[in-house]
Amino acid sequence: MRCNFCEWRCELGNGSPGVCRMYVEEGGVIRERFPYRWSSCIPSRVESVPFYHAWPGSRCLVIGTAGCNFRCRYCSNSFVAKQDPAMVQDGMIELTPPQLIRKAKQLGCHSIVFNVNEPAVSLPSLLELAVEARAAGMPMGCLTNAYTTEESTELLGTVFSFFNIGLKGLSDAFNRDYIGIPSAEPVLRNIRRLAALGHVEVTTPVIESANDGELEEIARFLADVDPEIPWHVFRLLPEDEMKEARYPNIDAIAGALEKIRGYLPHVYFHNFVGSDWVNTLCPGCGATVIERFSLGCGGDRLRSFDCRGNECPSCGRKIRLHGEKVPWNAGEVLP
Amino acid sequence: MSLAIIDAREWQRVFDLRTGAGVEEINPLLKMVMDIQARRPYPGDLDDAGNRWVTDTALDLIAGYDPSLVYLTYARQFFVGRYSVLTESEWAGMVSSVFEEVNRFVARSGFTPVIVGTGGMIPFVDFIDVTRLDGLVLSTHWSARYAGLHDGSRRDLQGLAALPEIERIVPRHEFRSLFGEYPGDDSRIPEYLLVARPGHMFRTVGGAFRKVRRVPAPAYAIPLAAESGVASSITDIRRLVVESLRERKIALIVVEGLGMDDFPWPHQRCENGRGWFYYEPGDAQYLTLTTGRHQVFEYPTGYKYFDEDAEKKEYPLSGYFTSVPADTIASGLGVRSVAVGNRSMLMHMAPGADISIECFARNLFNQGTMAVIHRMDKK
């Protein structure tokens, strides 16, 4: 029986758990192996996920599970995303969706954001969680690699209202060698679809001599989908199989991104401490409308929010925002 | 104004440590520190060269600044021990390797060492799952033995009391009174402090996921190696160092993860807490060492650190710290001081040295180094 949650469309049966090792076939049904088991359950700034244009300033509950359908060579979370999920279950937090929502409220969280690994590997649990979150008036967002099938992309669209999609690179060679997938075509298709369904930001890690030559092509693609898509270009933090890799040169990448801002205004360059390129500038007049401080993978933070509602205070142009500014200690959204 | 210099490899920026605002002006002292950072990229918390980096960086800083007091932390063995499966001989090799670094530092610098172990490590036994209580349990700053309970119900307390893995449940007033009158704001102290039995660790929401292999061992006493005098308590080490400084240059060297049993040099026994409470490696232990007073309640285990993380929080590069601790060992000295270590945040906060250089690592992710210059007016 085929699993149709992601584009691998693994044949499950005879105990085979597929690429992500998170599903099995039982009695003609695809079942989650480890439902309601979370590797992370931690309050965090929404900017640190990163979401720069969704619910600015808010506190979210970052959750994750185990396993992934990608095999990124530089994975920062390989200790949970690339391990056999069965081997890490002893460290998991087991909470049903109602229990998780209760903890999110106790922690003063405004939203729930799935991070750490890929949500498509835990979709049934997330569908249930979404029902509880909706009842509690709590928005849900996620980081996803968007390597989902068309049908499960629609499911993602029912679970989450804001997305940060990892577009790692365009060429088949890069995707084969660094990510372990044959092509980015499904990801590109799903970026278009999810941008129609909800709020989308995109993240691309830059690896010198691997995908740094594709930055302009990626930017053109994103501008074609929606020129106001926020794009987070990440300086690679060499981890996992790439621990020995060179840290990419910041000035060179910053220079390459400068001209892209002419047609894709919300380009950010970070994932290193103290980045100069984390503020939102009004695409109309160039005024700084949202200031942030970058702590690298330690998490970015809001420093000041100067929009009037969702408008530039200088020229009145609309600034792309999903939701409004939320005070850090505001707690959860009430229904 | 304290200045922070971030080195993210081939890229440096200077900030006001308190506000996070960028600073453009580079003076010769800043330049000297920035050059050291550029020369000495941090290899990583788990990297073989992590402790060598401490020695090399400290020697460079001594050559450039000529201090009389050096504060060092060697922490690699603590990180590796916590997250790696190690045989006894591998652990022994790691202990031997850190003391080779200590020896190298002492031999090359000529400083008189005062060496403190922060307590040993024992194999992790099991989690105590406290995620499904009515109340909220938090454990902070890598603590294994302690967690704070907030808004716990009667049912929670009854359930916890029945768990054999829990050594004691301490109400806030009892915890506070253990250390006498606490003059500060006690709103950070959880309603109950939960204390785990050795080898156990609380599984809480709010914790980050990595597979733990070892946790701090019971450490009612910690080892102190000092030829220059005697200190019977962790609160007495500061006095010993300050007195010794009158006659010679002193290096206060903190070696993480080593206790009375595995400390290889001749050592004294030094009390590491009070009553049933002992310090685990972390800010409370460091601040107690450097202020000479128990510092249990400044950032107590299990407090709601995230409530203080609003956008206007000061010291954005200093983690949960909301101010520079007062009256630390080096902050009031007339002599020059430096601090170097691979324990991020604590090096620029705990000793109060004129200049510090530390790794900028969070949850083992290596993001470079940070130097902090608290003052540059000493002759």
Topology:
The complex is a heterodimer of chains A (335) and B (379).
Chain A: E1 23-26, E2 29-32, E3 37-38, E4 40-45, E5 59-64, H1 78-81, E6 93-94, H2 97-106, E7 111-114, H3 123-136, E8 140-144, H4 150-159, E9 162-166, H5 172-179, H6 185-197, E10 199-206, H7 215-225, E11 231-235, H8 250-258, E12 267-270, E13 280-281, E14 288-293, E15 301-305
Parallel strand pairs in A: 5-7, 7-8, 8-9, 9-10, 10-11, 11-12
Antiparallel strand pairs in A: 1-2, 3-6, 4-5, 13-14, 14-15
Helix pairs in contact in A: 2-3, 3-4, 4-6
Chain B: E1 3-7, E2 12-16, H1 28-39, H2 50-65, E3 69-74, H3 76-83, H4 88-109, E4 112-117, E5 121-123, E6 126-129, E7 136-138, E8 146-150, H5 154-161, E9 166-171, H6 172-178, E10 192-196, E11 200-203, E12 214-216, E13 221-226, H7 237-245, E14 250-255, E15 268-271, E16 273-274, E17 277-278, H8 283-291, E18 337-341, H9 346-349, E19 355-362, E20 365-373
Helix pairs in contact in B: 1-2, 2-4
Explained architecture:
The complex is a heterodimer of chains A (335) and B (379). With 335 residues, chain A is an alpha/beta fold. Chain A has a single domain, classed as TIM Barrel. Chain A is 24% helix and 20% strand. Chain A has eight helices and 15 strands. Chain A has helices at 78-81, 97-106, 123-136, 150-159, 172-179, 185-197, 215-225, 250-258, and strands at 23-26, 29-32, 37-38, 40-45, 59-64, 93-94, 111-114, 140-144, 162-166, 199-206, 231-235, 267-270, 280-281, 288-293, 301-305. Chain A has an eight-stranded mixed beta sheet with strand order 4-5-7-8-9-10-11-12. In chain A, strands 13-14-15 form a three-stranded antiparallel beta sheet, with no helix packed on it. In chain A, strands 1-2 form a two-stranded antiparallel ribbon. In chain A, helix 8 links the parallel strand 11 and strand 12. In chain A, helix 3 packs parallel to helix 4 (150-159) and helix 4 (150-159) packs parallel to helix 6. With 379 residues, chain B is α/β, with parallel strands linked by helices. Chain B has a domain at 125-211: Gyrase A, domain 2. In chain B, the strands form five sheets. Chain B has a ten-stranded mixed beta sheet. A four-stranded antiparallel beta sheet of chain B has the order 7-8-10-9. A two-stranded antiparallel ribbon of chain B has the order 5-12. In chain B, strand 1 (3-7) and strand 2 (12-16) form a beta hairpin. In chain B, helix 1 packs antiparallel against helix 2 (50-65). Chain B starts with a strand and ends in a 6-residue tail after the last strand. The model of chain B has no long low-confidence stretch (mean pLDDT 95). Chains A and B meet through strand 4, strand 6, helix 2 and strand 15 of A and strand 20 of B.
